[in-house]
Each structure stands twice: as C-alpha cells, then as structure tokens.
Amino acid sequence: MSIIVFPGQGSQFVGMSRDFYDNFDSAKHIFSLIQDTTKINIKDIIFENSEGFLDITQYTQLAIFCASMSIYRVFKEEIDLDSLNIKYMLGHSLGEYLALTASDTLSLEECSKLLKIRGELMQNAYAVNQSGMVAIIGLNCNSVEKIIVDNDLKVEIANDNSPMQIVISGIKENLIQSEKIFKQNGAKKFIFLNVSAAFHSKIMLKAEKKMKHFIDNSIFKDPRIPIISNYTAVSSKDKTVLSNNLSKQMSNRVKWVESVQFLEKMQEDTIIEIGPGKILTGLIKKISNKFKVHNIENISDIMRFKDEFQFKK
To answer: Sheet of 189-192: strands edge to edge?
Structure first.
C-alpha cells in the first residue's frame, strides 16, 4: 500500500519540471491551463526567473503547484496508479492544495485561482520584513513548546517537521530575542528562513479570514483518495471536512510529525514524494524508519520507479 505526498514552499528551484515540460504534452497542458486561469507567466517564472519572482511568496506557491502537478500528471500516465494501491494523499502546507487537486477534490483551475489569492494574501499579511520564521534544529516539538511557555516567549510553533526540526513564527524582534534562550536550552541551530511573513501563526488570522471566503465559494468534491490534513493530522473523505480544515491551515500548525505517525499506525509502508526537491523525503526518514520512501522530481526517477516495481503502461 502506498501514500503520495507533495512538497510545500522552500522546495522551488529555477528549472524545476523542465524535462517534463520538454518531453510531455500533458505537462505543457498543465502550464497552459494555469497560465490561462491566473494570467501569470508561470513558465517564465519557473524556467527563467528573469524578474526574481520565484522566491516571492505571491508567485512561489503557484510555481511549485504548476511544477508538481506537471510531474504528477506524467507519473499518472506512466504508472498504473491502481497497482500502487494508494491509500492516502497529503502535503506540507501548500502541498495540501496539491493533494486535494491530485485526488480530484479541487479542479486544477479552481486550485490555481485559490493559490494565486493565497500567495497574495500571505505575501501581504504583515509589514515587509517585520515578521518571519525560524528553523530550530536539535529540539523536538514538546521541548520547544515548554521553552516558549516557561520563558513567556512571544513566538509560536508553525511547523512540527521532525523530532529534530521545529519551525517557529513571530514578529522579527521577538524571534531575535528568543534565539539566546533556545540555544541555552539545547538548540543546535537557529536559522532564519527566507519568507515574507510569519506563516502558520496568529499573524495570519486576518489573511486566513479573507482566504476562507474564497475557499467557501470554491467547488469541493469528495476525494477519490482520503486526504490527511495539516490541521488535524487525520484522514477524511468528506469534502466539507477537508474544506473546513483547509480554511484553518494558514494560521495553525502544520502537524507533519503527527501525520507521518498516523501513517505508521495505519501500517502503510511506501511513500512517494512527487514534486521538486527531496525535503519531505528527508523529514519522513527522520521521523520513522518504517517506510520505503521514493522521490519523483525528474523523468529518470519515474523510469527507476517503473523498473523497481515492474509496472508497465
């Protein structure tokens, strides 16, 4: 039994999914649909990045969505998904939108519209460079939570990524002031992330409220494959539940560790990460050694996957 996972912001790089675009009409079609729907030259952003838009949240999310969906579409063409016996889909933050589209809960066009809005709202949620996010290396979620409470720190846990990597969000000044305390309590590294604001925190509440309006007015269908939401870390096949969970995602913690642990409890054994980079593959291996994890980000990855599992078109 298999699970498909999709990456989030931070996995982007110039040229991602280029080999799929160059070799498969279905990938070109994904690009065309997204560009026609959003009126954004996503091809130039992904392949040329001539204006530096790829690392600007307003465009990053749509770019990763486009690249990942192109890869997924070709993967579906080349691999018999029924033979994989896919039990769940999930994604990290932005990746949840990919999972919802891949499972046919949202159409490609509907999700493109939502992500264009989401990127704009998150980019402009707070004054530029006045809030942010930090990756804390060397402490687990419970330890970070205790340090925050014991020291009355004005920061929040945004992503529970692995037992040794927690991301916090907050006002820049508060993040800077917290560094010494975290390091005194065992943090090995305190890394400021290149993001425009404090995602997955209360700072996103106004943006989340606006986003909820657009989510509520989008067409959701019950998924073909159960989705594990970031907000709950449990699965659902109910479109209303999934829509509600998505509407709460922007200001709440990404429960990635709990999501992987849920898969452990379900005794799943194979995870396939589809999209640029290998970030989730690395995190999953740090959470559990019970999974065989595959990464699909270029054509050669699909060929290797086909050879290993002896799947044929």
So the answer is: 156-162, 165-171, 131-137, 189-192
Residue-wise pLDDT tens digits, 73-114: 999 999 988 889 999 999 999 999 999 999 999 999 999 999
The 10s digit of each residue's pLDDT in 131-184 is: 999 999 999 999 999 999 999 999 999 999 999 999 999 999 999 999 999 999
Greatest CA separation found in the chain? 58
2 annotated active-site: no
Within a domain: residue 197? no
Catalytic residue among 2, 93, 196, 247: 93
What's the total number of domains in the chain? 2
C-alpha triplet 119, 122, 123: angle, nearest 5°: 80
For every residue of 95-154, DSSP letters joined together read: HHHHHHHHTTSS-HHHHHHHHHHHHHHHHTSSSTTSEEEEEEES--HHHHHHHHHHTT-S
- Strand, coil or helix: what is 279? helix
The helix/strand count (H/E) of the chain reads as 14, 10
Would you place residue 310 in the very low, low, confident or very high pLDDT band (cuts 50, 70, 90)?
A: low
200 is catalytic: yes
* DSSP classification of residue 260: H
Residue 211's domain comprises 2-125+202-309
Q: Is residue 62 part of a domain?
A: yes
pTM above 0.90, yes or no: yes
Which among 70, 103, 200, 259 is annotated as catalytic? Answer: 200
